[in-house]
Amino acid sequence: MSINPEMQARKPVHRRTPVRLTAAAISLAVIFGGGVLSATAASAADAPPSDIVLGIGAEDSQRTLTWYSGADTAQVAQVALASNVVNGAFPGSATSVAATGGQTTSGEFNRVSTLTGLAENTAYVYRVGSEGNWSPTYSFRTQDFEGDFDFLFFGDPQIGSSGNVPGDAAGWTDTVNVATATYPDAEMLFSAGDQVESASNEDQYAAFLQPDQLRQIPFVATNGNHDVGSKAYEQHFATPNTDRAAGPGNGTSSGGDYWFIHKGVLFMDINSNSRDFTSHIAWMQNVVAEHGDEATWKVLAFHHSIYSAGPHATDTDVADRRTNLPTVISDLGVDLVLQGHDHSYARSYLMHNGEKADAAEQAGADSVVAGPGGVLYVTANSSSGSKYYELQQSGFPWLSVSNQEHVRNYTAVEVTGGDITVKTLRSQANGDALPVNSVVDQVTLSRADDPNTDSEQLQVTVPTTAPGEFVWSIDGTNGLVDLGTAVQSGDHYAAIGSINPIRVTDTRTAGPEWAISAQVGDFTSGDTSFSGKYLGWKPAVIEAGGDAVAGAEVASGFEGGDGLSVASTLGNAAAGHAKGSAKLGAGLDLNIPVDVTDGTYQATLTLTALS
């Protein structure tokens, strides 16, 4: 295979060629579940802990817990396997995690604990408080740490906005009930902001926190304009990897910008109450630079919709955000932006640098294919029914779909490796013709094929090399690298082998730098699999030439680390290298846990050339 030599220096050009690997290994059995268990009544005089929220963690194996206590006493979160619950009694084998916190703006005391080291596909129970004064017992379950997933997105609950707090809370609770019953495996409850009408009103917060799902499914809080003016937002919700200096507000404002990765999706959530765009942009650029390569998709959330159809669409402050943010959002490769604020539903065309990306895209298309820099923006309607805004009749150039029926909505986001489906549904019927869970709008977002990438078996036919080309190919005829039968070795099974060598030839005059890297997927056999992190390698230059050097050795992740499940360099040459040809190889080292089910598993090792 050859690469067009007329590229600019350092422009990435890719050829991906999968290696088929075979080894004997295992899938692990797990048990999971959910629900609420009865708890022993608190025996202490103090009121039991309140305002409990299960939050998202910095990674899949973490969760946060926040709560309020009436007294400034030492508090802990206790967590245990749900399988250890006997006759409803909280397990004595529970792990205690100390809480931090301090006095709240309402005179209570907030507490935060971070649960770490959680196992995938496992049910847990937990309680918070102190000896003799525990909360009720709640449960949650983790799911796979890799693969497809759903999450639920909710527009501004804004409890208290109607003037009827119990009515707003009832609508909010009903929407959460409908959404989680329809999507019982949803892995997050994601807010567009404006949890309450008045930032410091604890009665409104208590009403917002009524649904028990907020204690069973991780909640992701976005900072809305009704959440500022008090520290209550950040006292109720713990957010991971938070930079409170990014987009700073005043001394009484809450929040900052934060990010997390869930199943290979990078989520960024910025505090759009601040229009310190320099700070927000620098923060997003830094997060993507450090973690973008870990992500299959990038999702950004902020409260103030810049592509809506409601009255705020023409506000001066919204126009300011619309001027300053879209280009950097496109440049950073963000795929989907989730927004609120305008209490009506809107879906944009694919937008690139603030303009419609494809003039041919039809309004209301049920599938869209984004080229580089194309971004889908979705604005959620009210999830509680506390407030609705009418649609403007202006012909907004960004608007693909808009809807306002004065009924409550929620949005289900279904994420796979190849696409994201955004489905907005009614949680409240609009007459007999539009019942609960009828669809308001649905669109599937996918990406255009990268013309510089392809995927083939290792065996290739290499054409005659023309002068001044960069060429790489598989130097072998066997399309399957067979690691044979793994052998038990103490606490693991071991198998070794080597890839078919890679021949790299670079005759370009300037000698621009190049690198060959590789990343392996999961080993699978039917419906079972194990992580590719257990594969390691030791690269080598088999035949020297063109100043090529081997990449660093990568150990199997059996003892820790990611192994070859993250991209690793096979070989490279620096800028200004000599013309010539080199042959690169690598020994493979696979170490698999011993609790295995026998079988023949295959994985794909994807090789990528960058030059």
TrEMBL record:
Residues 49-142 form the Purple acid phosphatase N-terminal domain. The keyword Ribonucleoprotein does not apply. Keywords: Signal. It comes from the Bacteria. Residues 151-345 form the Calcineurin-like phosphoesterase domain. It holds the Pfam family Metallophos. This is Fibronectin type III domain-containing protein. It comes from Herbiconiux daphne. The lineage of its organism: Bacteria, Bacillati, Actinomycetota, Actinomycetes, Micrococcales.
